[in-house]
Amino acid sequence: MLHSVARWGWCATRELIAAGCTRLVKDRFALVPPIPPVENEAVDVDVKIGRRAKSLNERHRAAVSGTSLAHCLLEQETGDDPVHDMQHRGEQFGMRRIRTRSREITNMLSSKIVVIGLLFSAAVPALAHDLPRRLPLGDGRIGVTPAIGRVLVCNMQFPGGGGAHRVGGWIRDGYWYPGEKPRVEGAVTWPNARVDITVEGRERVVRANALPRHATGVFPIRPGSTAHDYDRNPNSIREQQVLLRLPAEPQAAERPACVPLGMIGFTIAGVAVFNAFDLQGRDAPAYEVQDACNGHPQRRGLYHYHDWSPCMVPADHPADRPVGWMLDGFPILGPRAADGRALTNADLDECHGRVGEVEIDGRRVTTYHYRFTFEYPYTIGCFRGTPIALPRGGAGGGGARPSPGQVLESAARELGVDPSRLRAAVGPPLPNFERAAREQRISADLIRAAFDRARTAAN
Ligand SMILES: [Zn+2]
């Protein structure tokens, strides 16, 4: 009889490991106390989960001596057929295949509790990130009337600039292939990240400094890295002052409201949510190169997501509990239903939400709520309620123009030159790119392009 209860969970950091991984979670990879705490030595990785795990294995090996290791364990209480059970559980969570080699099968059967450890970099939260192999490209799927699978945009004109400068090979034939897209490398932690969401009277108040509660890649994107070949995001992640006073009991408006560029919501990870577009009106998650948590900073340094992030919440976060709040006060939830199934646009209305039971502030309420989905438009298609107005130019004011000083700093960073020298070379009063080109020994076109990019905020 099968009595195995494969508990899958996710033991995030070295600290947790040191704590003995006592926090058991129900999803995915399990945290298992019997693993010797602290040691960063990989327990042999015996399970392959499709191609993704294979590449992870390679990374684990490379990362074993690193300090920012995460320890992901898979626990299997053996039943009569543990392998089958693991496969079953894997399929339930959308993983394609779990295979074990015969030696491991023997090992598994011979032990009461089999623990298989995977070690990998904290920047690769990874297996939770089981994206579909390919996704239809969202380019042009915008409109001035609400429609499922489209975004009701506030402005059909996109400012241009910003984002990826080169179309990657992972975009082809009207699709993009998430697994093929490079990532911005690195694992920068933000110990000062602060996010506080409270209900005060009729308002849900978000106070945050917009630093993420998870590791990020290294920004600006490092020249010479693969990511940089496609996306030269010159922005650094910077602390912001976020203060959002959202309606605590939002109401549906008479008609849906359009979705602007810039911040459209905020997550409990301390990270802003932006819409599905880059500044050229293209499918941002497809073209832009983000870090392993699907985030990147815009020009003012506001780190944000354009789609679901595997780092947003722990794997044991209940499917019916919000992961964030949109600017109209309605909650947004993760991409999976309680049974683990990934939701699609077909499950949702034109604003990318539906009415259902949600656990809010410890109470179960039936309310309209949005969903992240793996497919475009990823976040919301329109606002069902009335979004609050953001101060123009403040954190998240995506359309705001940067100051000349910011433009210069940003351009200098992209060109890899000293800002004060560049300042002296190009002006004032008008930017003299030809002179700057002679002095800096960089082509005038390159300098002009860097300034153009720096002038437009990255969405
Ligand atoms: Zn962006």
Could you list some keywords that capture this structure?
three-stranded antiparallel sheet; 10 helices; 19% helix; binds zinc ion; disordered N terminus; 459 residues; 20 strands; eight-stranded mixed sheet
Q: What report would you give on this structure?
A:
It is built from ten helices and 20 strands. Helices cover 19% and strands 19% of the residues. The radius of gyration is 23 Å and the shape is globular. The chain has three domains: 14-128, no CATH class; 131-398, no CATH class; 404-455, no CATH class. A hairpin with a 2-residue loop joins strand 19 and strand 20. It is of the alpha+beta class and 459 residues long. The structure holds zinc ion.
Bound molecules: zinc ion
How far the N terminus sits from the C terminus, by CA atoms, comes to 54 Å
Tell me the count of domains: 3
Structural class: alpha+beta
Strand content: 15-25%
- Low-pLDDT windows of residues: 1-129
- Helical content stands at 10-25%
How many beta strands in the DSSP annotation? Answer: 20
Order of helices and strands: HEHEHEHEEEEEEEEHEEEHEEEEEEHHHH
Rg from Cα? 23 Å
